[in-house]
Amino acid sequence: MSRLAKERYAVMIEKLKRSGLKSTPQRLAIMRVLSENKEHPSVEAINKRLQKKFPGISQATVYRNIMLIKSLGEVLEIGFAGGGSRYDGRKPYSHPHVVCLECGKIIDPELASLRDMTREIAAGSGFEIKSFRLDFFGLCPACRNRK
Amino acid sequence: MSRLAKERYAVMIEKLKRSGLKSTPQRLAIMRVLSENKEHPSVEAINKRLQKKFPGISQATVYRNIMLIKSLGEVLEIGFAGGGSRYDGRKPYSHPHVVCLECGKIIDPELASLRDMTREIAAGSGFEIKSFRLDFFGLCPACRNRK
DNA sequence: TCGCAATTGATAATCATTATCAATTATGAA
DNA sequence: TTCATAATTGATAATGATTATCAATTGCGA
Ligand SMILES: [Mn+2]
Ligand SMILES: [Mn+2]
Ligand SMILES: [Zn+2]
Ligand SMILES: [Zn+2]
């Protein structure tokens, strides 16, 4: 468990306690996975990962706890229209993503030119901006070669 | 029907004929709505608009034809995870949107600082970028005042 | 005008997510 | 430590947007 993962996990635990909710083994395990997994896992992936330690853990429990952690503001949901959300528990705030159309891989890219975009939008539209979603879709290096 | 709408409609008709598909009244009407409606209408909104001219037009027909027009590359689908896509038949290519969290209004903002983002992402990630999705979420002027 | 593939309308199926509910469990008070 | 009880879990039903199915209808070329 990396330093960042430990920190993220600690913050989640902290918020959990502060809100008076229970620390069940399943819940803590889900938080741990979200804290350390860099691959923007799906509910299915998280469930699969937990089967080793919690044989028979319910899909519903994973959904429920992710929902809860999201309500605590500690995980970013990247939902897609076709169904199948992906989650980022390491950076629970708006940030850009690059998605591979072939294999579904998702990465967090650097993007310096993002700086003043929100400000520009707010000024131009009169909207009060709360969050954003920026996805780039394409083919990852591996899938490009495979063609 | 504005000049732009007429042009968009003409392009859709053109592609439809070139692909050997039939020009049914329902299909043409759906294309017309997509060409002229600036509000990023939903399937439900399109269906509602068409009830006047085609009482009893099937929801399935609207879905099917939007799917078809999308496959022709003539409408942009803005799908949301919670279900309920919105469509832009005036600008059928990747462009940013500003979405009101309160009333669902969607507008096409100006965004000069968008310029070299795709290039920067491609260079930094090694991905071959095909499209992007950029949404800003917030409160529109009307909904801000209403609070 | 005909013949038929394409299209429509009605409806069932799908699939991720959410709700329901009885059984289990974490937690704090006694 | 034992208890009381509200929270949580696991199993499963319900939901809602989308997609598939299929018989009846229709656009369009021969
Ligand atoms: Mn991320
Ligand atoms: Mn638009
Ligand atoms: Zn890939
Ligand atoms: Zn609004």
Give a structural overview:
By secondary structure, chain A is of the alpha+beta class. Chain A has helices at residues 3-18, 25-36, 43-50, 59-71, 117-125, 141-145; strands spanning 76-78, 86-88, 97-100, 106-107, 128-139. In chain A, the strands form two sheets. In chain A, strands 4-3-5 form a three-stranded mixed sheet. In chain A, strand 1 and strand 2 (86-88) form a beta hairpin. The mean pLDDT of chain A is 95. The A-B interface holds A 77, 79-82, 85, 96, 98, 100-101, 107, 109-118, 120-122, 124-141, 144 and B 77, 79-82, 85, 96, 98, 100-101, 107, 109-118, 120-122, 124-141, 144. The site of one zinc ion has 7 residues of chain A, from helix 6. Chain A binds a DNA duplex (30 and 30 nucleotides) through residues 21-24, 26-27, 43, 56-61, 63-65, 67, 81-85.
| Largest interface by Cβ-Cβ < 8 Å | A-B, 43 and 43 residues
Bound molecules: manganese (II) ion, zinc ion
The outline of chain A comes out as: globular
Could you tell me how far the N terminus lies from the C terminus of chain A, measured between alpha carbons in angstroms?
36 Å
Name of the CATH architecture of the largest domain in chain A: Orthogonal Bundle
